[in-house]
Amino acid sequence: MRKIFNWMLATAIVCGTTAFMTSCKEAKTNEETPVQEVKSEELIRTSQSWDGVELPDYLQGRPELVAVKYVFPAGKKLGWHHHPVMNYGILVQGELTIIGQDGKEKTVHEGEAVVEMVNTIHHGENRGSKPVILYMFYLSQKDLPLAVQHPEIPLD
Fold first, then answer.
1. CA-to-CA distance for 144 and 64, rounded, in angstroms?
2. 95-115 as b/e: b if 16+ CB within 10 A
3. Burial of 85 by CB count in 10 Å (0-12 exposed, 13-18 middle, 19+ buried)?
4. Could you give the CA distance from residue 32 to residue 26 in angstroms, rounded to a whole number?
5. CATH of domain 64-149
6. CA 125, CA 130: separation in Å to the nearest integer?
7. Residue 13 CA: distances (Å) to CA of 1, 2, 16, 19, 27
8. HEC per residue, 34-66
9. Residue 64: partners with Cβ closer than 8 Å, 6 or more residues away
10. 20 to 30 A Cα–Cα from 65, which one of 10, 93, 115, 137?
11. pLDDT tens digit sequence for 140-150
């Protein structure tokens, strides 16, 4: 019986020492790893759309915020449209060219923010070789469309 007790005691000491040494090693590793800080970078602050036009005043009433992820295949052109509400976004992959009905163009590159035109007809094109991924944020209201299509205007 005493042999079994000694064996159990020895096993407990070895296991306990191993666990203690392992935790000490992990604690030391954690001490050596620098604490990473949260970083923030303001991407855009403006009161104008990309074409330099002043944004309209906020709508009256209860807001409805909408976030949309768009994926534009390479070579894809969106039809002519306008946005009745303010919106802005971040392009996370590719390049998107926005063309106003007046011919003015803006190419948005990966990592850039863009403020869209409000109530001005335009369309977008992915002229690149990879899909565009774009996250857009709309400052809307219940029952308002995010975009109004203009199929009567042909794409070139």
1. 9
2. bbbbbbeeeeebebeeebbbb
3. buried
4. 10
5. 2.60.120.10
6. 12
7. 18, 16, 5, 10, 21
8. CCCCCCCCCCCCCCECCCCCECCCCCCCCCEEE
9. 140, 141, 142, 144
10. 93
11. 999 999 999 99
- Condensed to tens digits (0 to 9), the pLDDT of residues 18-54 reads 454 455 455 555 567 788 999 999 999 999 999 999 9
Domain segments of the chain as ranges: 1-39, 64-149
Answer yes or no: pTM beyond 0.85.
no
Across 37-46, b (16+ Cβ under 10 Å) vs e yields: eeeeeeeeee
Q: Which two three-digit tokens encode residue 51?
A: 């074409």
d(CA 81, CA 148): 5
Scan for tokens 């899909």, then name that residue: 131
